[in-house]
Amino acid sequence: MTGFVGQYEHQMDDKGRVSLPSAFRREADSDRFVLLQWEKPYLTLFPESKWETIQQRLLEYRRTDPRAWNQVRLMVANAVEVSPDKQGRILIPANLQAAANLSGSVLLSGNIDRVELWDPATYRESVQEQAGDLEAFAHRLFG
Questions:
Q1: Contact at 8 Å (CB) between 84 and 28?
Q2: CB neighbours of 135 closer than 8 A, spacing ≥ 6?
Q3: What is the Cα Rg of the chain in Å?
Q4: Any idea of the CA torsion for 124, 130, 133, 135, to the nearest 10 degrees?
Q5: Stated pTM of the model
Q6: Using CA atoms, how far apart are residues 121 and 134, in angstroms rounded to an integer?
Q7: Is residue 11's pLDDT more than 80?
């Protein structure tokens, strides 16, 4: 209905689990997600329906460009399917934790059709400090 909006900061436990906010769980069309790092330095959590669209793009890309096979392999090999447990936590595999420098606090940020998982300090440096003139952008967007 509203897409994935808002930010939540949760502690990752010793097993690599982090709570997926109930607002994000409600917004998803199912309890299945795909987690991967397609752009550094953060992870992206796609709901099942969005991943199906991306999967079709990957198949088309692979079908129409012979050079794409290894790119698709690498992208899919580093993706994992996750589902929230009864407490609403998802497991972030160690390799993805390391790739996004996640330990302790994890910032879960809604981005309309997906959720991004960030190290909070990296988010401040990469997003907030480099956002540019947010006021001008907001005026263009909201009129």
A1: no
A2: none
A3: 16
A4: -20
A5: 0.91
A6: 20
A7: yes
One-letter amino acid at 109 equals S
Instruction: Give the CATH number for residue 80.
Output: 3.40.1550.20
Q: 82-118, pLDDT tens digit by residue?
A: 999 999 999 999 999 999 999 999 999 999 999 999 9
**Residues shown for the chain:** 143
> How many domains is the chain built from?
1
Dist. CA 98–CA 72, nearest whole Å: 21
Amino acid in position 100: A
Residue 1 falls inside a structural domain: no
Which strands form 33-36's sheet, in the order they lie side by side? 7-11, 105-110, 115-118, 43-47, 33-36, 80-82
Phi, psi of 105 (to 5 degrees): -75, 140
Give the 3-state secondary structure of residue 135. Answer: helix
pLDDT in tens, 29-56: 889 999 999 999 999 999 999 999 999 9
Residue ranges making up the domain that contains 85? 7-142
